Amino acid sequence: MWARLTSQILNVSLVSSMDVSLVDMSYFFKCFFFGLKYVFSSTQIESYSILCIENLRNIPLPLLFLIPVSSEGHFLFVPPLEPVEESLLEQYGFPVAGTETRCYTNHALSYDQAKRVPRWVIEHISKHKTLGNADRRHCKFRPDPSIPLMFSAVNEDYLGSGWSRGHMAPAGDNKYSTQAMAETFYLSNIVPQNYKNNAGFWNRMEMYCRELTERFEDVWIVSGPLTLPQTGDDGKKRVTYQVIGQGDVAVPSHLYKVILARRSRISSEPLVLGAFVVPNDPIGFSHQLPEFQVHIEDLEKISGLVFFPQVDKTKDVKNICDVDTCKLIGFDEFTLYITARKVHSARTLHRLEKVMSELRETGIEPDEYLMKLYKKKEEELVQQKQMEAREGRAG
């Protein structure tokens, strides 16, 4: 073999540029280099002997070609192309898509500057963080000051669009901090969301996540939008989505939520994990969370994201719906919850009585918590009205 190889190498000669036209690419043959050894390959094509030699130690690019150019055993040596220097490529800078990860008081996100919505939003909640006096009535939706205005959604994009401003990291998860809650109203944390979905099923999912803090010390949640392909009448799949406002804010077809929970920091129990994808449409109370559970790998495939990459999902976690209930609250309990929020935010006695009247029309009896809240609010508003009357007489 080596004798034959040597004789072939001796037959190799360089040809002038005039001979390049003689190259017949049908005789082109590549040879790959593995490890630190040479790989020699020879084959006979008609009367041509082809030899490929590769040497990574001496050649910048790992390919060296010898191409036959005549029937007399002459070869053309084609040197490898030199790569463009990185310093030259980036002399005036590479394209940038903004800061990859933006961090806030209790959430972080990756923002899609083209669609003007977040790609993902991660938050950490605990029992402590869901309790406190922070009040969403003091918060306003506004553009994220850290995002250039040309890439930011604005409130006018949503006005009259038929879509609500849907939180990915909810305000209710941050009652412990006025600043943390206010930051959830940045439009970088918002997507166009179906009104009934936002106020209904998605809200119930958020409530379930907060409920988890009663049983788990730490809960991490990643939420975001998806734009999934739809199959048309012709059987072909297409990705299409509506945009709203002057900023062309992208309306997602679906929303996802990935939940990771830890029993305690000293517990030997495995983490629990669940991934869920819901359509951006109204979802009735007859539907429960497990109906929308998906394999984490499937969500990663369609989203292009790897969730909780430092967790070995093959052995370090259990299915959250096997360990916990994954049960969302029912219609009656949810109605009482919404009524309590309305009672809390009522600013006049007339509004307060209207809220309670709407509850009676549903046939649902107020529970003890709601009645106490109602009485307290009533006393507060009565005192406020009396004070305003005294100030009016004094004036």
Automatic annotation (TrEMBL):
CDD domains in the cross-refs: NUC (cd00091)
GO cellular component: mitochondrial inner membrane; nucleus
Cofactor requirement: a divalent metal cation
Binding site for Mg(2+): N198
Primary location class: mitochondrion
Keywords: Endonuclease, Hydrolase, Membrane, Metal-binding, Mitochondrion, Mitochondrion inner membrane, Nuclease, Signal, Transit peptide
Keyword Metal-binding on entry: yes
UniProt name for this protein: Nuclease EXOG, mitochondrial
